[in-house]
Design goal:
Layout: H1 3-26, E1 27-32, E2 36-38, E3 50-52, E4 57-66, E5 69-74, E6 79-83, E7 87-91, E8 107-109, E9 127-129, E10 132-134, H2 143-149, E11 158-160, H3 163-167, H4 184-190, E12 197-204, E13 208-209, E14 227-232, E15 243-247, H5 249-252, H6 260-269, E16 273-281, E17 297-309, E18 312-315
Amino acid sequence: MTPHLRRIVHSLCAGLSVLLFTLSAMAQEGTVIRNVNLRSDPSIANPPIRLLSPAEKLTLIDARTTNGYYHVKTQDGIEGWAWGKNLKVVTALEKTSTFGATIVGTSTSATAISTNWEKPDPVTSDFQTEDGTCGAAGSGADTPTNLRKNRTDVPSGYHEVPFSVIATLAYPRPAPTQRIKWSSQQLDEIKPYEGAAVSVVGYVAAVKVEGKESTNCGWTKPSEVDWHIPLVAQAGQGEADAVVVETTPRIRASHPKWTVTVMNQHKANQTPVRISGWLMFDPDHPNHLGRYRTTLWEIHPITKMEVSVNGQWVDLDQ
């Protein structure tokens, strides 16, 4: 190798090292996507500190892995190590976005919901509170619907679609209010779309803390029930024009800044919000059409909420 060529190779290697270090330094946040133990060191030699559940947010102390583990800190300040394959790591670059644009690396824009988008099977888990344990299927008869409402997996990215795409998406009419009573033909009508990870921009029309539902085993405390949020395309529209989006206690447990007070503030201020989560069909409320919603399609559960601040999208967790 000639001296000139050697200098070129050394320059390229140095540049690559800087790039790799920069990309590593940008990795700041992780989300648990599968149950994983928080450990005192990057091994299984010692007992775990505690179990981390899907949707929990972690701060990365070091963006590089050691033996496949990330050095992390939980939201309550506990440091430890978590197996990297059970986390979704988000970089600072991925979190940058402007109002109306997509999130680089984690979102794509679309004018329709593609039948080719990935629609993974729901990952579910039991929900434990002071009142006991509620299983993934809740306590009702419509198990297939409850399992979708209670999913705890968090998408690695979202397809941003116009409000009208969800509001006008087709579905079988009429159809029984319980999915378990649907025909295979009716199920086939929603199968190409249900379970896609989507984002939609709109305005909060109301925030309603749900009451007793089979989804959450009939529990009624605010921390144990879904929050029903009618989202509208234009500020000032009523619920009749809304697409319903819902938070669930299983997901909300990892988002302490998601509060009714905060959401009502954004409602009062008519702040644009971007809601992300799993597209789901809820057959239970056809009597609400034209009064409290415009479609039976929902984003349920919500896995990410952002608000517009000075023309930029800011994660509600921040």
